[in-house]
Design brief:
Keywords: Membrane. This is OmpA family protein. Pfam families: OmpA. The structure is a single chain. This protein is of the alpha/beta class. It has helices at residues 2-23, 61-74, 106-122, 133-136, 196-200, 208-217, 228-231, 234-248, 252-264, 271-283, 287-303, 324-327, 330-343, 360-381; strands at 50-51, 57-59, 89-93, 97-98, 126-129, 141-150, 162-171, 176-185, 203-204, 306-309, 347-352, 389-393, 416-421. The strands form 2 sheets. Strands 1, 2, 3, 4, 5, 6, 7 and 8 form an 8-stranded mixed β-sheet that branches. A 5-stranded mixed β-sheet has the order 9-10-13-11-12. Helix 14 (360-381) links the parallel strand 11 (347-352) and strand 12 (389-393). Helix 8 (234-248) packs antiparallel against helix 9 (252-264), helix 8 packs parallel to helix 10 (271-283) and helix 13 packs across helix 14 (360-381). The longest helix is centred in the first third of the chain and has 22 residues, at 2-23. 45% of the residues are buried.
């Protein structure tokens, strides 16, 4: 009996050590074996969770957030060697984002609020302060996170059946990550509707600032360096966060001043800033300034080889929606695309996209017709483009959101993309 008991104790110790080791890796470092961290009281009843292929547990959304956050806070390794022990550590939260689009949503905002509450109520070693340029200058800990729709194989393609919650805590003083948290959530209870700024943004393009944020959070482990694309742009990011908050509150003059301030700091030439300058001028009725700002958006997209524009079409049609509040600026959007493309003698592939609603053969046909319609409008504005553009339709094969809701949450799935190609 004594021998058996010792064997059981050793086995338990080994399992505990293995669990701790897995938790230190975080999301992405072991993509097929992410940790499952269940917070006290979260529960593991069979009726409240399901499993995806692999060992990770798919939990109800609230429990998944709790699991990821508890793992993040409990496994933080501070202070670094050689520094005195501190009673409290300052933490700022860079607003959480969608891991594919970079947008802040109702879900990511509420998650940020919940993380703040958890630190204040359950983890007194952390002192939460505002994400601002002044606080960034003091080299605090920065909490970042992504909420990403994934399919049954944990991939960001096809029909999204779950959400991957990835959290990271970065130490600006050491330039390294000090903790990670990961969980997978059922879609029920997740509201992916973008906040007002991201709903209104006319276009999307790959942005190094967002890329650095995502790469710092995903595919990393505690001890890894902060991605330089994120680190170099964090001061501008703090100004952008304030600007987005002001825009969402309808304080457009204040938001415009903040976007302009962000554009003037090093690494401030971010796509969110260009969208913000356009949107605030448009909201303030400054059409000439808005048109000029949209031309800069087009230039940015051409420089980065890809620009997705949210042209909204009538259902099953190639005609733009008739609502002037939505399609009113489309004529000068098209003019800017034609003018800026003609001026740099670049060639474009104009690609139509649809959401996954309906039969895919029809989606592919409709997406091609919409691309051809936009192409013809551009040719009418600049005939020289006729031999420098091709039209393509991919249906719903390249969704960025993939929830199939056909509402504001997945507007980017119904985009028209302009990709720079060889002439």
């Amino acid at each position: 009996m004594t021998t058996v008991s010792c064997g059981i104790d050793v086995a338990r110790q080994l399992l505990a050590a293995l669990s701790i080791a897995l938790l230190t890796f975080g999301c992405g470092s072991l993509p097929d074996s992410p940790p499952t961290s269940v917070a006290p009281g979260a529960g593991t009843a069979a009726h409240s969770s399901a499993t995806l292929p692999g060992p990770q547990t798919l939990q109800p959304y609230d429990k998944a957030v709790l699991s990821a956050a508890t793992a993040l806070f409990n496994n933080t390794r501070l202070p670094p060697e050689g520094t005195p022990v501190q009673a409290r550590y300052t933490v700022v939260i860079d607003p959480l984002i969608d891991g594919m689009t970079g947008a802040q949503s109702i879900a990511t905002r509420s998650m940020g609020v919940r993380l703040t509450t958890m630190m204040r109520e359950q983890f007194p070693q952390f002192e939460v302060k505002t994400f601002s340029a002044a606080n960034i200058a003091k080299s605090p800990l920065v909490l970042i996170g992504t909420l990403t729709g994934v399919n049954a194989q944990r991939q960001t393609s096809g029909t999204r059946e779950a959400y991957r919650i990835c959290l990271a805590l970065a130490d600006l003083r050491s330039g390294k990550l000090v903790s990670k948290g990961l969980a997978f959530a059922l879609p029920d209870g997740v509201d992916p509707t973008p906040l007002a700024f991201f709903q209104d943004a006319p276009a999307w393009s790959e942005d190094p600032a967002t890329e650095g944020y995502v790469k710092t959070c995903q595919g990393t482990k505690a001890g890894d360096p902060i991605n330089p694309l994120y680190l170099d742009r964090i001061v501008a990011a703090a100004l952008v966060a304030e600007a987005i908050e002001a825009y969402d509150a309808g304080r457009y003059i204040e938001a415009l001043d903040l976007y302009k301030s962000a554009s003037s700091v090093p690494a401030g030439n971010q796509f969110r800033v260009l969208n913000g300058i356009y949107l605030t001028n448009w909201k303030l009725g400054r059409q000439q300034q808005a048109e000029s700002a949209f031309a800069r958006i087009v230039d940015y997209g051409l420089d980065h080889q890809r620009l997705a524009v949210k042209f909204l079409f009538r259902p099953g049609s190639t005609a733009f929606v008739p609502d002037p509040k939505l399609s009113g600026p489309y004529p000068f959007w098209l003019k800017a695309i034609a003018t800026q493309t003609s001026g740099v003698t670049k060639c474009l592939e104009v690609t139509g996209h649809t959401s996954p609603t309906g039969p895919e053969p029809l989606n592919e046909r409709l997406s091609l017709l919409r691309a051809e319609y936009v192409k013809s409008r551009l040719e009418g504005l600049s005939p020289v483009l006729a031999k420098r553009m091709i039209a393509n339709g991919v249906g719903s094969r390249q969704t960025m959101v993939g929830n199939g809701q056909d509402d504001a949450s997945d507007a980017l799935d119904r985009r028209v993309e302009f990709k720079v190609i060889g002439c």
